[in-house]
Design goal:
This is Alpha-(1->6)-mannopyranosyltransferase A. By secondary structure, the protein is mostly helical. It has a domain of 91 residues. Helix content is 66%, strand content 0%. It has 22 helices and no strands. Helix 5 packs parallel to helix 10, helix 8 packs across helix 13 and helix 17 runs antiparallel to helix 18.
Length: 504
């Protein structure tokens, strides 16, 4: 086998180049107009042309996964500090090479970017996306919005609408230019994630190269945040920057950045209560009297809440939006896939229940299970916040656990949601089993979604093959690196900003 085929950087770059080419016929292609139409290449989006495009896209995805695993083997086998530093540079170079071809790609894995443009155009044209669906504002952009969402309100915050309004004011109804601007925003958010992850890892004495490999070089992160242009990119980027500020004891800046992220998407709010623990840990010690610690906690919590509210209110006012998004943040019940535990359990239970009562169709157990999972999610989030409070590094780990609880038990879960979790999963020392599970799950999720945005999660043969591929690659990767994979210190003695500050 040639040296080229074993080097992660060129293998991954070839993969994303194929994805970029295939995206114009196998991605979230335009219903009207677009680049292919302008070039007279419409045939690439249907028939044999679409078949070729899908072949290129899937070949690219497979190559990107292979490159990521090869890179992981090099990263995880780095034993010395100098080798680890070299691997961090290698991950960064690989990321740049892998992302560059996607700059020129059409939207892939989701049509959401068209909805983003439509929602911005609605605010621009005087409509309220929190009470009205896209169909209220006919035009070229509406033709590109998925039929499922044309009469659906948006769950995103005022910053999302403000960005969309600004873009649509600049481009008018030019969808192609609008997509290019959203691509630039996505890359900006992704760049913030790439910048922040190694700094968080160093702050909490975790291997920076490993954290960047699993958190940013991950195919799920690259394909869905850069290729899919989801607003998760900006949100996760802002939260990551905020946590870097918190790790450096700049708590006002941390809360402001995370509050801005909340104004984009409410998911960012999961991080805020843990920043309070980080601040409390910095300003008090174990020897501080209980009453003073309680007063400090109440003061920090109240100040953080007021600052968050002020930032979101300012963005809401400046964007001429409303607080209607608060009623929409529970997600849209139209989305059904087994990434959300209620949907998975409902699918399993329905066939059994129908043996006893023909009226107990899928929506019956689904409605019940969504209510139960919502209650369990609330309890799980509180438990994560309480149990991960002892140190700053524990608090950051608690944010990752909170995301995991929320995404598993939420009524609606989509693959790009996991970018929030992946960006934090290895910025603190973690048990040895965490990385293999995160790696295998990432491979399965990457293979589960097609270029157009449809998923194969209910295709048993496809998912069985995906699981087997993930198991084989993960087993090979961690078996070859097991002797040098770092083991975490006990939670009570995890080093980090607390230790360097005298465990204040």
């Amino acid at each position: 086998m040639s040296a080229f085929s074993l080097r992660p950087l060129p293998v991954g770059a070839l993969g994303t180049a194929l994805i970029a080419i295939g995206s114009f016929g196998a991605g979230a292609t335009r219903n009207r107009g677009g680049v292919l139409h302008a070039l007279g290449l419409d045939f690439f989006a249907y028939g044999h042309g679409a078949g070729l495009a899908n072949t290129l896209l899937w070949a690219g995805i497979v190559l990107l996964i292979a490159a990521w695993v090869l890179l992981g083997r090099r990263v995880l086998s780095a034993a010395s500090p100098s080798a680890s530093a070299a691997r961090l540079d290698e991950v960064r170079r690989s990321l740049i090479a892998w992302v560059i071809p996607l700059i020129f790609a059409a939207p892939i894995l989701s049509r959401d970017v068209y909805s983003y443009l439509m929602q911005g155009a609605m605010l621009r044209d005087g409509f309220d996306p929190y009470t009205q669906g896209a169909a209220i504002n006919p035009g070229p952009m509406l033709l590109e919005v998925s039929h499922d969402w044309r009469n659906t309100t948006t769950p995103y915050g005022p910053l999302h609408l403000w960005l969309g309004e600004g873009i649509t004011r600049l481009v008018g109804d030019n969808i192609t230019v609008g997509i290019i601007l959203y691509k630039l925003l996505s890359i900006a958010g992704f760049s913030a994630i790439v910048w922040a992850i190694p700094r968080l890892a160093r702050a909490f004495s975790a291997p920076p190269a490993t954290a960047l490999w699993i958190g940013a070089a991950n195919p799920v992160t690259i394909l869905h945040l850069v290729g899919g242009m989801h607003n998760e990119s900006i949100m996760v980027g802002l939260v990551s920057l905020g946590l870097v500020c918190a790790a450096r004891h700049r708590y006002v800046g941390a809360i402001i950045l995370i509050a801005v992220a909340v104004a984009l998407k409410a998911t960012a709010a999961f991080a805020l209560p843990f920043v309070v623990w980080m601040a409390l840990r910095h300003y008090t010690t174990a020897q501080t009297p209980v009453l003073k610690r309680c007063a400090a906690f109440l003061g920090l919590g109240t100040a953080g809440a007021l600052l968050t509210l002020g930032v979101v209110a300012a963005i809401t006012w400046a964007s001429r939006s409303s607080w209607g998004w608060l009623a929409e943040i529970s997600g849209n019940s139209k989305v059904i896939n087994p990434l959300a535990l209620p949907s998975l359990l409902a699918g399993v239970a329905t066939d059994f229940l129908l043996l006893f009562d023909a009226s107990l169709t899928f929506n019956v157990p689904l409605g019940f299970l969504r209510q139960v999972s919502t209650a369990l999610m609330g309890l799980g989030l509180v438990a994560a916040w309480w149990f991960f409070r002892s140190t700053a590094s524990q608090a950051v780990r608690g944010i990752a656990v909170a995301y995991c609880v929320a995404f598993a038990l939420n009524s609606v879960t989509l693959p790009w949601y996991y970018a929030s979790l992946l960006s934090l999963v290895a910025v603190t020392p973690v048990p040895r089993w965490v990385l293999p599970w995160a790696t295998a799950a990432s491979i399965v999720v990457t293979l589960a979604f097609t270029g157009s945005g449809n998923h194969q999660l209910y295709n048993p043969l496809w998912m069985l093959a995906s699981v087997m591929i993930a198991w084989a690659l993960t087993s090979w990767l961690f078996r070859s690196t097991a002797p040098t994979t770092p083991s975490p210190a006990p939670a009570a003695s995890l080093p980090g900003p607390d230790a360097r500050a005298g465990r204040r």
